[in-house]
């Protein structure tokens, strides 16, 4: 089974975007001006699977900053405690490379 590709900032613990097929990730890194321009600040994390989590707003600090907490996807108690803001994809035991390095290695192995 082909590993899933997560594209995002380096050392990201989670991703707001769902995982991609590796061919799609390679294409995006080569043709998307923003991803391409980010260079080594963009990373590809490869994983066989991921865990879906919920990022919820649980309150506000005295200074007006939002307080957040992560909950397991579908936690029946979470919706009573906090407002859902994002779903988070958390890759399980990913291997990581910078975007340009990953594309270069992939291109070499195909040639």
Automatic annotation (TrEMBL):
Biological classification of the source: Bacteria, Bacillati, Actinomycetota, Actinomycetes, Kitasatosporales
Listed name of the protein: Uncharacterized protein
The species this protein was found in: Streptomyces zinciresistens K42
């Amino acid at each position: 089974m082909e590993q899933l590709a997560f594209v995002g900032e380096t050392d990201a613990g989670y991703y707001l975007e769902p995982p991609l097929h590796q061919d799609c990730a390679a294409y995006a890194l080569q043709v998307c001006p923003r991803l391409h321009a980010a260079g080594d600040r963009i990373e590809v994390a490869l994983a066989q699977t991921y865990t879906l989590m919920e990022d919820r707003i649980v309150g506000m600090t005295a200074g007006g900053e939002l307080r957040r907490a992560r909950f397991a996807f579908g936690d029946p108690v979470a919706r009573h405690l906090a407002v859902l803001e994002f779903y988070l994809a958390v890759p399980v035991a990913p291997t990581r490379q910078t975007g340009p390095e990953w594309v270069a290695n992939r291109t070499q192995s195909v040639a």
